[in-house]
Amino acid sequence: MRIEFLFWRECPSHPEAKELLLEVLAERGIEVPIEWREIRTHEDALAHAFPGSPTIRVDGRDVDPAGAEAAPSLSCRIYRLPDGRVSPVPSRQQLEEALP
Amino acid sequence: MSVIETAPTFDLPGVDGRTHRLEDYADSPVLVLVQSCNHCPYVIAWEGRINDLQKEFADRGVRIVAISSNDAEAYPADSFEAMVAHAHEAGYVFDYLYDESQEVGRALGSERTPEAFVFDADRRLVYHGAVDDNREESLATAHYLRDAIEATLAGETPPIADTPPVGCTVKWRS
Predict the structure, then answer these.
(1) What are B145-164's pLDDT values in tens digits?
(2) What is the nearest CA distance from B60 to chain A, expressed in angstroms?
(3) Angle value at C-alpha B165, between B159 and B167, nearest 5 degrees
(4) Residue B22 lies in a domain
(5) Is B28 inside any structural domain?
(6) Which residues in chain B touch residue A79, judged by CB atoms under 8 angstroms apart?
(7) Mean pLDDT over residues B39-50, rounded?
(8) What is the domain count for chain B?
(9) pTM
């Protein structure tokens, strides 16, 4: 399994998302190295199809596929939660469902 | 960047189609300027609470004015047209102004969206920072902006005058 965690330091969302991801992985007993990738420039965002910070991919699939279609940009990402609310981080449910 | 001590003058277009100036709010005992934008999830998380505060304090003359200074060329979701649409969809009851030159945002010393600046009747800054202490409304326990408005209306100093704003960075033109 390959897990990528892409973030832009100017957005304050990534520490919370990182903590949540590590919690979910621990609960599931999944031990794989996470690829932490800092996006620094607009060119980075384009190169990595980065729709906002943070972006988490499992085996190349975004944990929120609908949100992954947003144009690449250096911004905080908007997650549409299953209950209809908006959040700067994915929900626990989205992370759990993205993992095998 | 340090924040401003007195309210900046401004003359900005609003999503209501009118031009808004600082002096238009001269009768308000409390003026709240909120650095804002459309595309930030933190703004979306807090905008309902900001709207509720405007409704709650409207009959006491409090005016809340949101201002977007974001670079709309780099972030088209923050264009003036998108602001008009977003304000309509979100049901904003407060004024929402477009600071295309970014001069007002620079004058305020803004860094984040949302970021609140509360000015008293003499337009001196009495509170700067976050709306409250949690983007999840049900988990918020310290209501900084509400407390600052209440205290200022009562002629008192807000119990907390400054908190770190939590949100997206203002998108300055490079």
Answers:
(1) 999 999 999 999 999 999 99
(2) 31
(3) 150
(4) no
(5) no
(6) 41
(7) 96
(8) 1
(9) 0.94
